[in-house]
Amino acid sequence: MNRKEFFRTIAVGSIAVGAVATNSRCQSSDKGTSPKAPFAQAPLAYDFAALEPHIDKLTMEIHYGKHHTAYINNLNKAVEGTEFADKTLDQLIAGAGTTNAAIRNNGGGHWNHAFFWDILAPGKGGEPTGAVADAINGQFGSFASLKEAFAKEATGRFGSGWAWLVTDNGKLSVGSTPNQDNPLMDISDLKGTPILGLDVWEHAYYLHYQNKRADYINAFWNVLNWDKVAEHLKNA
Ligand code: MN
Known about the structure:
By secondary structure, this protein is mostly helical. The chain contains nine helices and three strands, in the order H-H-H-H-H-H-E-E-E-H-H-H. The two termini are 34 Å apart. Bound molecules: manganese (II) ion. The site of manganese (II) ion has 7 residues, from helix 2.
């Protein structure tokens, strides 16, 4: 998205967010099982303003109600009437290299954002505990060291993409992917099962943090729901 499109999106988002929030609650959830087309957007489990001051309300409204919704709509269009129409989202992700750019980008966009909303929650953050803390301490030495390694990946991703903490054969590692790719994709250099991830596209932070991506990355830990991270680690 170029600069002009970015600000046009903001203008549209600010007048239409109320309708989006209401409509989204009528749609079925993609969580739990891997859905097939037509894909739908799960409702947010918290209010748009609930993650403030770390992630601001307007960013959440536009990010969830415009960006994520657009990935879903475009994914539905991209698979309709093709050999991919009957695939689950997980199958489209795992075989991204055998699909096409529209399915790869929008399928990744849907998967990544659904995952991201689900690991965030108000009143969370703090330090990891239990098995997650053990795994982090075992691999990185401390939570502080993990944060440092993760921030290096998240700030080092040039342009748009995601930073991830993944588990692969019992080993944790940090890395990043470009655009809407993710570590479950066959074409990804970074491999593994994501247990947490951070959207570092400018649309995820620019309204509040402008060019200060590092501040957004630091703030992320204040709204991370470690209970969800623990679930992802356990299920990996
Ligand atoms: Mn995003």
